[in-house]
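Handover notes (outgoing to incoming on-call)

Open items:
1. DUF7144 domain-containing protein: sequence verified, structure written out, both below. Nothing else pending on this one.
2. Nothing else urgent.
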Amino acid sequence: MSHASQPSAGTPPPASPGSHRGPDRNTDWAVGGVIFAGILLLCNGVLAILQGIAAIGEDNVYGRVGDYVYRINLTGWGWIHLIIGICLVITGYGILKSMSWARYAGIFFASISLIAQFLFLPYLPVWALIMIAIDVFIIWALSVYHSDGRRDLA
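DUF7144 domain-containing protein structure tokens:
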């Protein structure tokens, strides 16, 4: 009988596909997704800041909407986008620096951004849909990453 096919006493048995990987649960996709989510949060934040400044500075930057349930004047939208953008930039920086609070804050602020973009749909529908898709990816990427794994972002 050959003992070569049996694992030794010190090594764990090989994992079957789809099984739990043990303490190192972060795949390369999860780690890469978190880094990409951090970069997207930074970019999303800068764009939201610019979008907010444009709306605060000029009331005729975006098209007017007729009767819409969630109607807010453009100066109000400008301040909303500016505040969300600042929060997204800070959170994106925190994620890229592997700060413990940043992952949960990223999920929260990406959710707030998603809601704000949904409410902003009548003003810039294509842009809002793209930003909603990006926010969904950010929420997913930050949700699948396990900070207790041995792989670090750096």
